[in-house]
Amino acid sequence: MESDDRIFRRIIDQRDRFYRMAYSYVRNEQDAMDVVQEVACKAFKHIKELRDPEYAETWLFRVTINTSIDFLRKQKHEQAGLPEHDNGAPDSYDKLAVFDTLRPLDDTSRTIVVLHHMEDKNFEQISCIMGKNVNTVKTIYYRAMKTLKEQIEKEA
Amino acid sequence: MADIKTGLDKLKEQYEGIHAPQELEGRLIEMESVYKRKARFAGLKSWGERAAVFVCCAVAGITLISNINASAAEAMQKIPIIGAVSKVVTFRSYKSGDADIKTPHVTGLGDKKTEQKLNKEFDKYSDAIIAQYEADVKDMGSDPHVAVSSSYKVLVDNSSQLTIVMNTVVAKGDSMETDWYYNIDKKTGKLLKLSDVFRSGTDYIKPINAYISGEINKNPDDYFMEDDKFKSIASDQNFYINKDGKLVLVFDEASIAPAYKGVIEFTVPTDIISGILPEDGLVH
User: Fold this and answer.
1) Which CATH number fits domain B26-192: 3.30.565.40, 3.40.50.12500, 3.30.70.100, 3.30.200.20?
2) Among the residues of chain A, which ranges form H helices?
3) Closest CB from B4, B21, B28 relative to A152
4) Fewer beta carbons within 10 Å, N or C terminal of chain B?
Protein backbone atom coordinates (compact mmCIF):
# COMPACT_ATOMS: atom_id res chain seq x y z
CA MET A 1 0.00 0.00 0.00
CA GLU A 2 2.90 2.42 0.48
CA SER A 3 3.55 2.43 -3.23
CA ASP A 4 -0.11 3.10 -3.94
CA ASP A 5 -0.05 6.01 -1.55
CA ARG A 6 3.09 7.40 -3.16
CA ILE A 7 1.80 7.44 -6.72
CA PHE A 8 -1.49 9.02 -5.72
CA ARG A 9 0.32 11.52 -3.53
CA ARG A 10 2.59 12.39 -6.44
CA ILE A 11 -0.37 12.98 -8.75
CA ILE A 12 -2.24 15.02 -6.15
CA ASP A 13 0.80 17.12 -5.15
CA GLN A 14 1.86 17.73 -8.73
CA ARG A 15 -1.59 17.90 -10.27
CA ASP A 16 -0.91 21.39 -11.67
CA ARG A 17 1.88 20.06 -13.90
CA PHE A 18 -0.24 17.31 -15.42
CA TYR A 19 -3.25 19.60 -15.63
CA ARG A 20 -1.23 22.20 -17.57
CA MET A 21 0.03 19.57 -19.97
CA ALA A 22 -3.52 18.25 -20.52
CA TYR A 23 -4.83 21.80 -20.85
CA SER A 24 -2.26 22.56 -23.56
CA TYR A 25 -4.08 19.95 -25.67
CA VAL A 26 -7.73 20.12 -24.70
CA ARG A 27 -7.92 23.87 -23.87
CA ASN A 28 -10.76 23.46 -21.47
CA GLU A 29 -10.79 23.25 -17.67
CA GLN A 30 -13.30 20.43 -17.31
CA ASP A 31 -11.75 18.32 -20.04
CA ALA A 32 -8.25 18.85 -18.65
CA MET A 33 -9.47 17.72 -15.23
CA ASP A 34 -11.10 14.66 -16.80
CA VAL A 35 -7.83 13.79 -18.50
CA VAL A 36 -5.85 14.05 -15.26
CA GLN A 37 -8.45 11.94 -13.50
CA GLU A 38 -8.18 9.28 -16.17
CA VAL A 39 -4.40 9.36 -15.86
CA ALA A 40 -4.76 8.71 -12.13
CA CYS A 41 -7.06 5.81 -12.92
CA LYS A 42 -4.54 4.33 -15.35
CA ALA A 43 -1.75 4.86 -12.83
CA PHE A 44 -3.62 2.77 -10.32
CA LYS A 45 -3.84 -0.08 -12.80
CA HIS A 46 -0.08 0.07 -13.39
CA ILE A 47 0.85 0.65 -9.80
CA LYS A 48 3.50 -2.03 -9.65
CA GLU A 49 5.38 -0.64 -12.64
CA LEU A 50 5.47 2.83 -11.13
CA ARG A 51 7.54 2.23 -8.04
CA ASP A 52 10.61 3.98 -9.45
CA PRO A 53 9.88 7.72 -9.02
CA GLU A 54 11.83 8.79 -12.10
CA TYR A 55 10.08 6.27 -14.31
CA ALA A 56 6.76 7.24 -12.71
CA GLU A 57 7.22 10.85 -13.76
CA THR A 58 8.10 9.91 -17.32
CA TRP A 59 5.13 7.55 -17.41
CA LEU A 60 2.72 10.14 -16.03
CA PHE A 61 3.70 12.73 -18.61
CA ARG A 62 3.53 10.21 -21.41
CA VAL A 63 0.11 8.97 -20.35
CA THR A 64 -1.15 12.53 -19.87
CA ILE A 65 -0.12 13.38 -23.42
CA ASN A 66 -1.56 10.19 -24.91
CA THR A 67 -4.79 10.48 -22.95
CA SER A 68 -5.18 14.07 -24.12
CA ILE A 69 -4.65 13.01 -27.73
CA ASP A 70 -7.15 10.17 -27.33
CA PHE A 71 -9.59 12.58 -25.78
CA LEU A 72 -9.35 14.95 -28.74
CA ARG A 73 -9.63 12.10 -31.22
CA LYS A 74 -12.72 10.77 -29.48
CA GLN A 75 -14.23 14.22 -29.31
CA LYS A 76 -13.66 14.71 -33.01
CA HIS A 77 -15.39 11.42 -33.77
CA GLU A 78 -18.23 11.99 -31.42
CA GLN A 79 -19.01 15.10 -33.11
CA ALA A 80 -19.45 18.58 -33.91
CA GLY A 81 -21.97 20.98 -32.62
CA LEU A 82 -21.99 20.26 -28.94
CA PRO A 83 -21.54 23.36 -26.85
CA GLU A 84 -18.22 23.69 -25.10
CA HIS A 85 -18.14 23.05 -21.40
CA ASP A 86 -17.81 26.22 -19.52
CA ASN A 87 -17.48 25.43 -15.90
CA GLY A 88 -15.36 27.03 -13.25
CA ALA A 89 -13.89 30.46 -13.12
CA PRO A 90 -12.49 31.67 -16.42
CA ASP A 91 -8.72 31.79 -16.56
CA SER A 92 -7.17 35.19 -16.78
CA TYR A 93 -5.98 36.42 -20.15
CA ASP A 94 -2.37 36.71 -18.99
CA LYS A 95 -2.07 33.09 -17.99
CA LEU A 96 -3.57 31.77 -21.17
CA ALA A 97 -1.36 34.03 -23.27
CA VAL A 98 1.30 31.35 -23.15
CA PHE A 99 -0.86 29.13 -25.35
CA ASP A 100 -1.52 31.96 -27.77
CA THR A 101 2.22 32.44 -28.18
CA LEU A 102 2.70 28.69 -28.67
CA ARG A 103 -0.22 28.46 -31.10
CA PRO A 104 1.89 28.44 -34.31
CA LEU A 105 3.48 25.18 -33.12
CA ASP A 106 1.90 21.81 -33.81
CA ASP A 107 1.08 19.57 -30.84
CA THR A 108 4.36 17.64 -30.91
CA SER A 109 6.55 20.74 -31.26
CA ARG A 110 4.65 22.59 -28.55
CA THR A 111 4.91 19.64 -26.16
CA ILE A 112 8.65 19.34 -26.71
CA VAL A 113 9.09 23.06 -26.00
CA VAL A 114 6.90 22.82 -22.89
CA LEU A 115 8.73 19.78 -21.57
CA HIS A 116 12.12 21.34 -22.20
CA HIS A 117 11.53 24.88 -21.03
CA MET A 118 8.65 24.68 -18.58
CA GLU A 119 9.28 21.23 -17.13
CA ASP A 120 13.10 21.36 -17.38
CA LYS A 121 13.37 17.99 -19.09
CA ASN A 122 16.47 17.20 -21.13
CA PHE A 123 16.25 15.73 -24.63
CA GLU A 124 16.86 12.21 -23.38
CA GLN A 125 13.96 12.45 -20.98
CA ILE A 126 11.72 14.02 -23.62
CA SER A 127 12.65 11.21 -25.97
CA CYS A 128 11.41 8.68 -23.38
CA ILE A 129 8.22 10.61 -22.66
CA MET A 130 7.32 11.09 -26.31
CA GLY A 131 8.57 7.76 -27.57
CA LYS A 132 10.72 9.46 -30.19
CA ASN A 133 14.36 9.20 -31.10
CA VAL A 134 16.57 11.82 -29.35
CA ASN A 135 17.77 13.25 -32.64
CA THR A 136 14.22 13.58 -33.87
CA VAL A 137 13.34 15.44 -30.67
CA LYS A 138 16.28 17.81 -31.16
CA THR A 139 15.39 18.45 -34.79
CA ILE A 140 11.79 19.22 -33.94
CA TYR A 141 12.90 21.38 -31.02
CA TYR A 142 15.26 23.58 -33.05
CA ARG A 143 12.71 24.01 -35.79
CA ALA A 144 10.12 24.93 -33.15
CA MET A 145 12.45 27.46 -31.58
CA LYS A 146 12.86 29.19 -34.92
CA THR A 147 9.09 29.48 -35.29
CA LEU A 148 8.72 30.57 -31.69
CA LYS A 149 11.38 33.25 -32.02
CA GLU A 150 9.48 34.74 -34.94
CA GLN A 151 6.25 34.59 -32.98
CA ILE A 152 7.77 36.29 -29.94
CA GLU A 153 9.28 39.02 -32.08
CA LYS A 154 5.96 39.48 -33.81
CA GLU A 155 4.15 39.84 -30.49
CA ALA A 156 6.78 42.29 -29.24
CA MET B 1 18.92 35.13 -28.69
CA ALA B 2 18.46 37.55 -25.80
CA ASP B 3 14.91 38.27 -26.93
CA ILE B 4 13.91 34.68 -27.17
CA LYS B 5 15.44 33.98 -23.75
CA THR B 6 13.37 36.74 -22.19
CA GLY B 7 10.36 35.60 -24.15
CA LEU B 8 10.74 32.00 -22.96
CA ASP B 9 11.19 33.11 -19.34
CA LYS B 10 7.99 35.06 -19.62
CA LEU B 11 6.21 32.08 -21.15
CA LYS B 12 7.42 29.88 -18.31
CA GLU B 13 6.15 32.36 -15.77
CA GLN B 14 2.76 32.42 -17.46
CA TYR B 15 2.69 28.64 -17.75
CA GLU B 16 3.47 28.14 -14.08
CA GLY B 17 0.77 30.63 -13.21
CA ILE B 18 -1.84 28.18 -14.49
CA HIS B 19 -3.30 26.17 -11.65
CA ALA B 20 -5.78 23.35 -11.75
CA PRO B 21 -9.21 24.26 -10.36
CA GLN B 22 -9.71 23.32 -6.72
CA GLU B 23 -12.21 20.73 -7.90
CA LEU B 24 -9.44 18.54 -9.32
CA GLU B 25 -7.80 18.07 -5.94
CA GLY B 26 -11.15 16.95 -4.51
CA ARG B 27 -11.71 14.53 -7.39
CA LEU B 28 -8.26 12.99 -7.00
CA ILE B 29 -8.55 12.65 -3.24
CA GLU B 30 -11.89 10.92 -3.71
CA MET B 31 -10.32 8.55 -6.24
CA GLU B 32 -7.45 7.84 -3.91
CA SER B 33 -9.80 6.87 -1.14
CA VAL B 34 -11.99 4.74 -3.42
CA TYR B 35 -9.00 2.84 -4.78
CA LYS B 36 -7.49 2.35 -1.35
CA ARG B 37 -10.78 0.90 -0.24
CA LYS B 38 -10.85 -1.32 -3.28
CA ALA B 39 -7.37 -2.62 -2.50
CA ARG B 40 -8.38 -3.38 1.07
CA PHE B 41 -11.56 -5.00 -0.13
CA ALA B 42 -9.60 -7.39 -2.27
CA GLY B 43 -8.41 -8.89 1.02
CA LEU B 44 -11.79 -8.80 2.68
CA LYS B 45 -13.51 -10.25 -0.34
CA SER B 46 -11.51 -13.43 -0.19
CA TRP B 47 -12.61 -13.63 3.43
CA GLY B 48 -16.28 -13.48 2.53
CA GLU B 49 -15.84 -15.73 -0.46
CA ARG B 50 -14.65 -18.57 1.68
CA ALA B 51 -18.12 -18.81 3.12
CA ALA B 52 -19.69 -18.44 -0.31
CA VAL B 53 -17.55 -21.25 -1.69
CA PHE B 54 -19.00 -23.64 0.85
CA VAL B 55 -22.45 -22.62 -0.25
CA CYS B 56 -21.70 -23.19 -3.91
CA CYS B 57 -20.13 -26.57 -3.28
CA ALA B 58 -23.13 -27.65 -1.33
CA VAL B 59 -25.52 -26.54 -4.05
CA ALA B 60 -23.55 -28.43 -6.65
CA GLY B 61 -22.84 -31.43 -4.49
CA ILE B 62 -26.34 -32.59 -3.70
CA THR B 63 -25.38 -35.50 -1.56
CA LEU B 64 -27.10 -35.41 1.66
CA ILE B 65 -26.27 -35.85 4.99
CA SER B 66 -27.55 -37.76 7.83
CA ASN B 67 -29.91 -36.42 10.36
CA ILE B 68 -30.04 -32.91 11.27
CA ASN B 69 -31.22 -32.82 14.77
CA ALA B 70 -34.78 -31.96 14.04
CA SER B 71 -35.82 -32.12 17.63
CA ALA B 72 -33.30 -29.45 18.54
CA ALA B 73 -34.82 -27.26 15.93
CA GLU B 74 -38.27 -27.97 17.23
CA ALA B 75 -37.19 -27.11 20.73
CA MET B 76 -35.82 -23.77 19.67
CA GLN B 77 -38.78 -22.84 17.59
CA LYS B 78 -40.14 -19.98 19.57
CA ILE B 79 -39.73 -17.87 16.65
CA PRO B 80 -41.60 -16.47 13.74
CA ILE B 81 -44.05 -18.64 12.00
CA ILE B 82 -43.76 -17.90 8.37
CA GLY B 83 -46.55 -18.94 6.14
CA ALA B 84 -48.87 -21.76 6.87
CA VAL B 85 -46.34 -24.53 7.01
CA SER B 86 -42.69 -23.60 6.82
CA LYS B 87 -40.90 -21.99 9.70
CA VAL B 88 -37.51 -20.38 9.85
CA VAL B 89 -35.82 -20.46 13.21
CA THR B 90 -32.51 -19.43 14.68
CA PHE B 91 -30.96 -22.81 15.12
CA ARG B 92 -27.65 -21.60 16.50
CA SER B 93 -26.38 -18.30 17.78
CA TYR B 94 -22.63 -17.83 18.06
CA LYS B 95 -21.46 -14.90 20.13
CA SER B 96 -17.84 -14.29 20.95
CA GLY B 97 -15.97 -11.01 21.23
CA ASP B 98 -17.11 -8.95 18.26
CA ALA B 99 -18.78 -11.80 16.43
CA ASP B 100 -22.51 -12.34 16.33
CA ILE B 101 -23.46 -15.07 13.92
CA LYS B 102 -26.96 -16.43 13.65
CA THR B 103 -27.63 -19.64 11.75
CA PRO B 104 -31.16 -20.26 10.51
CA HIS B 105 -32.83 -23.59 9.95
CA VAL B 106 -36.00 -24.23 8.03
CA THR B 107 -38.62 -26.70 9.16
CA GLY B 108 -41.95 -27.80 7.78
CA LEU B 109 -40.96 -27.21 4.19
CA GLY B 110 -42.68 -30.41 3.15
CA ASP B 111 -39.69 -31.85 1.34
CA LYS B 112 -37.36 -33.32 3.93
CA LYS B 113 -34.43 -33.69 1.57
CA THR B 114 -34.49 -30.05 0.51
CA GLU B 115 -34.93 -29.02 4.09
CA GLN B 116 -31.91 -30.99 5.21
CA LYS B 117 -29.83 -29.78 2.32
CA LEU B 118 -30.71 -26.19 2.95
CA ASN B 119 -30.07 -26.39 6.66
CA LYS B 120 -26.74 -28.05 6.04
CA GLU B 121 -25.80 -25.17 3.82
CA PHE B 122 -26.74 -22.65 6.46
CA ASP B 123 -24.56 -24.59 8.90
CA LYS B 124 -21.63 -24.65 6.53
CA TYR B 125 -21.98 -20.97 5.77
CA SER B 126 -21.85 -20.10 9.46
CA ASP B 127 -19.11 -22.65 10.20
CA ALA B 128 -16.90 -21.06 7.56
CA ILE B 129 -17.43 -17.59 8.95
CA ILE B 130 -16.87 -18.67 12.52
CA ALA B 131 -13.70 -20.58 11.61
CA GLN B 132 -12.33 -17.56 9.77
CA TYR B 133 -13.21 -15.24 12.62
CA GLU B 134 -11.49 -17.46 15.15
CA ALA B 135 -8.41 -17.77 12.95
CA ASP B 136 -8.24 -13.98 12.52
CA VAL B 137 -8.58 -13.36 16.22
CA LYS B 138 -5.82 -15.86 16.89
CA ASP B 139 -3.54 -14.22 14.30
CA MET B 140 -4.15 -10.75 15.65
CA GLY B 141 -3.02 -11.62 19.19
CA SER B 142 -4.06 -9.56 22.19
CA ASP B 143 -5.74 -6.77 20.26
CA PRO B 144 -7.91 -8.32 17.57
CA HIS B 145 -9.66 -5.82 15.31
CA VAL B 146 -12.18 -7.84 13.44
CA ALA B 147 -15.93 -7.82 13.88
CA VAL B 148 -18.39 -10.09 12.17
CA SER B 149 -22.13 -9.99 12.15
CA SER B 150 -24.19 -12.51 10.24
CA SER B 151 -27.91 -12.92 10.32
CA TYR B 152 -30.79 -13.88 8.09
CA LYS B 153 -34.07 -12.50 6.92
CA VAL B 154 -37.06 -14.13 5.31
CA LEU B 155 -37.63 -12.05 2.22
CA VAL B 156 -40.52 -13.90 0.59
CA ASP B 157 -42.70 -16.63 1.97
CA ASN B 158 -45.86 -17.47 0.09
CA SER B 159 -47.57 -20.58 -1.20
CA SER B 160 -45.05 -21.14 -3.98
CA GLN B 161 -41.78 -19.64 -2.82
CA LEU B 162 -39.51 -19.21 0.18
CA THR B 163 -36.57 -16.83 -0.11
CA ILE B 164 -34.10 -16.29 2.67
CA VAL B 165 -31.16 -13.91 2.62
CA MET B 166 -28.03 -14.31 4.71
CA ASN B 167 -26.56 -10.92 5.46
CA THR B 168 -22.96 -10.86 6.62
CA VAL B 169 -20.87 -7.85 7.54
CA VAL B 170 -17.16 -8.25 8.12
CA ALA B 171 -15.33 -5.27 9.59
CA LYS B 172 -11.60 -5.53 9.47
CA GLY B 173 -10.14 -2.06 9.11
CA ASP B 174 -12.71 -1.53 6.41
CA SER B 175 -16.02 -3.29 6.22
CA MET B 176 -17.67 -5.43 3.61
CA GLU B 177 -21.24 -6.53 3.40
CA THR B 178 -22.51 -9.56 1.52
CA ASP B 179 -26.04 -10.74 0.91
CA TRP B 180 -26.44 -14.35 -0.14
CA TYR B 181 -29.89 -15.48 -1.29
CA TYR B 182 -31.59 -18.86 -1.09
CA ASN B 183 -34.69 -19.33 -3.21
CA ILE B 184 -36.82 -22.40 -2.73
CA ASP B 185 -39.59 -23.40 -5.09
CA LYS B 186 -42.14 -24.91 -2.75
CA LYS B 187 -43.96 -26.75 -5.54
CA THR B 188 -40.91 -28.76 -6.55
CA GLY B 189 -39.10 -28.49 -3.21
CA LYS B 190 -36.01 -27.38 -5.11
CA LEU B 191 -33.34 -24.95 -4.01
CA LEU B 192 -33.05 -22.87 -7.15
CA LYS B 193 -30.02 -22.07 -9.20
CA LEU B 194 -30.46 -19.22 -11.66
CA SER B 195 -30.75 -21.68 -14.57
CA ASP B 196 -33.73 -23.32 -12.81
CA VAL B 197 -35.71 -20.11 -13.20
CA PHE B 198 -35.76 -20.59 -16.98
CA ARG B 199 -36.97 -23.28 -19.34
CA SER B 200 -34.36 -25.96 -19.57
CA GLY B 201 -31.84 -25.55 -22.39
CA THR B 202 -32.60 -21.88 -23.01
CA ASP B 203 -29.93 -19.20 -23.14
CA TYR B 204 -30.75 -16.86 -20.28
CA ILE B 205 -27.18 -15.57 -19.91
CA LYS B 206 -27.17 -13.55 -23.12
CA PRO B 207 -30.28 -11.41 -22.55
CA ILE B 208 -29.37 -10.83 -18.90
CA ASN B 209 -25.81 -9.80 -19.75
CA ALA B 210 -27.11 -7.47 -22.44
CA TYR B 211 -29.55 -5.90 -20.00
CA ILE B 212 -26.94 -5.39 -17.26
CA SER B 213 -24.36 -4.02 -19.69
CA GLY B 214 -26.98 -1.62 -20.99
CA GLU B 215 -27.79 -0.40 -17.49
CA ILE B 216 -24.09 0.03 -16.69
CA ASN B 217 -23.53 1.98 -19.89
CA LYS B 218 -26.30 4.39 -18.89
CA ASN B 219 -24.26 5.42 -15.84
CA PRO B 220 -20.70 4.29 -16.55
CA ASP B 221 -19.23 6.52 -13.86
CA ASP B 222 -20.94 4.42 -11.22
CA TYR B 223 -19.25 1.18 -12.25
CA PHE B 224 -15.81 -0.25 -12.88
CA MET B 225 -14.61 0.15 -16.44
CA GLU B 226 -11.87 -1.42 -18.55
CA ASP B 227 -10.28 -4.51 -16.98
CA ASP B 228 -12.76 -4.74 -14.11
CA LYS B 229 -15.83 -3.99 -16.16
CA PHE B 230 -18.80 -6.33 -15.86
CA LYS B 231 -18.44 -9.12 -18.39
CA SER B 232 -20.96 -11.79 -17.55
CA ILE B 233 -23.14 -13.16 -14.82
CA ALA B 234 -21.60 -16.14 -13.03
CA SER B 235 -22.61 -19.78 -13.27
CA ASP B 236 -23.54 -19.60 -9.59
CA GLN B 237 -24.92 -16.06 -9.89
CA ASN B 238 -26.42 -14.66 -6.69
CA PHE B 239 -30.06 -13.72 -7.25
CA TYR B 240 -33.53 -13.68 -5.80
CA ILE B 241 -37.10 -13.46 -6.91
CA ASN B 242 -38.84 -10.63 -5.16
CA LYS B 243 -42.36 -10.61 -3.77
CA ASP B 244 -43.66 -9.24 -7.06
CA GLY B 245 -42.20 -12.16 -8.98
CA LYS B 246 -39.39 -10.12 -10.53
CA LEU B 247 -35.90 -11.52 -11.00
CA VAL B 248 -33.23 -9.54 -9.14
CA LEU B 249 -29.52 -10.13 -9.73
CA VAL B 250 -27.16 -9.34 -6.90
CA PHE B 251 -23.49 -8.39 -7.06
CA ASP B 252 -21.12 -8.20 -4.11
CA GLU B 253 -19.57 -4.98 -3.02
CA ALA B 254 -16.53 -4.05 -5.09
CA SER B 255 -17.24 -6.74 -7.69
CA ILE B 256 -18.55 -4.59 -10.55
CA ALA B 257 -18.61 -1.13 -8.94
CA PRO B 258 -16.57 0.78 -6.38
CA ALA B 259 -17.07 -0.58 -2.89
CA TYR B 260 -18.77 2.54 -1.61
CA LYS B 261 -21.69 1.75 -3.92
CA GLY B 262 -22.46 -1.24 -1.71
CA VAL B 263 -24.19 -4.42 -2.86
CA ILE B 264 -25.50 -3.81 -6.39
CA GLU B 265 -28.86 -5.13 -7.57
CA PHE B 266 -30.47 -5.20 -11.00
CA THR B 267 -34.16 -5.97 -11.33
CA VAL B 268 -34.59 -7.61 -14.72
CA PRO B 269 -37.71 -6.48 -16.61
CA THR B 270 -39.74 -9.63 -17.23
CA ASP B 271 -40.46 -8.72 -20.84
CA ILE B 272 -36.84 -9.22 -21.84
CA ILE B 273 -36.85 -12.82 -20.55
CA SER B 274 -40.52 -13.72 -20.97
CA GLY B 275 -39.79 -15.92 -24.00
CA ILE B 276 -37.61 -18.29 -21.99
CA LEU B 277 -39.60 -18.49 -18.75
CA PRO B 278 -41.71 -21.56 -18.02
CA GLU B 279 -45.44 -20.96 -17.96
CA ASP B 280 -45.93 -21.70 -14.30
CA GLY B 281 -42.59 -20.39 -13.07
CA LEU B 282 -41.93 -18.15 -10.10
CA VAL B 283 -40.85 -15.20 -12.23
CA HIS B 284 -43.63 -13.40 -14.01
Assistant:
1) 3.30.565.40
2) 2-13, 15-26, 29-45, 53-78, 93-102, 107-113, 123-130, 134-155
3) B4
4) N
